[in-house]
């Protein structure tokens, strides 16, 4: 029987190929949606695990996490600089690292921060050393630059007509180890240098509380946090004022209450209990404190709705494919009436005819399902690779235990679908088939 089935499939190879491809494409659509959604969840969750607590000015918690953890460009309100000094002196805090956004270089975001964050972000350096002067920088693992190279910070981005700063040129001192996060594509520089080249001196902000009323911009937006403060001063002619920086100046990371306003502070609490207490303390007044994981949970709920829509679309496509296959099988059985009649005339029992037709069709659908899983996996890998290249976030694509359940459901459906042509063949009269 097996030899007969294989011979039959070779003879009808064109129709068999159509059936396999239809099933494969429909299956691949559903599989790729499931794998890609799971990869996005895992990748973003692992990226957020690097940061325990994020503190910013009152506003959107989601945007605070997207800007500070995933380095997505968007305006953020500034909180008073005195918050940094309070956190640095808080015994519940292991370390607190301010971050500032606004500049870029060759498409990579430049992030002003501290040596503490640079040392703890990836667990050490792959090569070189941590920046120790204002003119030094540390690059992420995915930044395609070399040690010793020059970085000329640009206000905003090249695509948006950004302006290159002439006050300071950074030199690359080290490279971080891979983290699998958006920070792999970041250029880390001393926040002290960022303040200086943007004219944000600490004493200018120590006496006024206006800084939290302006906006800071992360990523490549054309209005950045330094310039937001300058607009509150005497610069009324429409031109942006730049400060001065000394590339050889030694870093001073002893924070005072007079520090310039900040869009975000990344905090490492000493214990889990301290983390919850700090979050409670800084969720009132003009600041907000969030656990990135909690914010992502809300985003996952939105992703779940989007996934449900995509799964519904994929299921609709699979239903259309199933209907097409039913039509194909009915036509196919009609074309094989003489062959089936001849087999019956030569003494083949009805059960054998049923088995031959059922096995042929089930084999084609099963091969299509297997090919669909392979195509869906390949599509998810390609999409995840493209996303990782642009965002820096590692997107792990892989099958899980529940995917075996999906395969079992599809094979069960194939079992039922293959029975339709087999029943039609079983019920055919050999005499009528031979006269057709």
State the main characteristics.
alpha+beta, twelve-stranded mixed beta sheet, two-stranded antiparallel ribbon
What features would you describe in this structure?
The protein is of the alpha+beta class and 436 residues long. The chain has helices at residues 2-11, 13-48, 61-68, 82-89, 115-120, 191-197, 202-205, 225-231, 272-281, 292-335, 337-345, 350-391, 401-426, 430-435; strands spanning 53-57, 75-77, 93-105, 108-113, 125-128, 136-139, 150-151, 154-155, 163-164, 170-176, 187-190, 215-217, 264-269, 287-290. Strands 1, 3, 4, 5, 6, 7, 8, 9, 10, 11, 13 and 14 form a 12-stranded mixed β-sheet that branches. It has a two-stranded antiparallel sheet with strand order 2-12. The model is unreliable at 203-241 (pLDDT under 50).
Mean pLDDT: 78
Measured by DSSP, the beta-strand proportion falls in: 5-15%
Number of strands: 14
Query: What is the N-to-C order of secondary-structure elements (H for helix, E for strand)?
Result: HHEHEHEEHEEEEEEEHHEHEHEHHHHH
* Helix-residue proportion: 40-55%
What structural class do helix, strand and pairing data support? alpha+beta
Secondary structure layout plus pairing:
Elements: H1 2-11, H2 13-48, E1 53-57, H3 61-68, E2 75-77, H4 82-89, E3 93-105, E4 108-113, H5 115-120, E5 125-128, E6 136-139, E7 150-151, E8 154-155, E9 163-164, E10 170-176, E11 187-190, H6 191-197, H7 202-205, E12 215-217, H8 225-231, E13 264-269, H9 272-281, E14 287-290, H10 292-335, H11 337-345, H12 350-391, H13 401-426, H14 430-435
Parallel strand pairs: 4-11, 6-10
Antiparallel strand pairs: 1-13, 1-14, 2-12, 3-4, 3-8, 3-13, 5-10, 6-11, 7-10, 8-9
Helix pairs in contact: 1-12, 2-10, 2-12, 10-13, 12-13
